[in-house]
Amino acid sequence: MGYLLVLLKLLLIVLQIVMLTHLATEAKLSAEDKRSWVIGFVLFGGITSLIYYFDIYRPAKKAQNDLWGEAKDI
What we know:
Layout: H1 2-25, H2 31-73
Helix pairs in contact: 1-2
């Protein structure tokens, strides 16, 4: 399960890079198309950030706090 989440995160990051590159290189897009790309980029960035927070950062931070709590008890 962990490998699947890591793969999903990497794919989302690659997709973000592709979207941003496309947005930058295709500057002749209409305003509506540019807005759609920006909205998509922000949504995927937000989803990736949420996955990172709940899957990696939050458990690591909790484990770190648990270690500090145990160290204070000693």
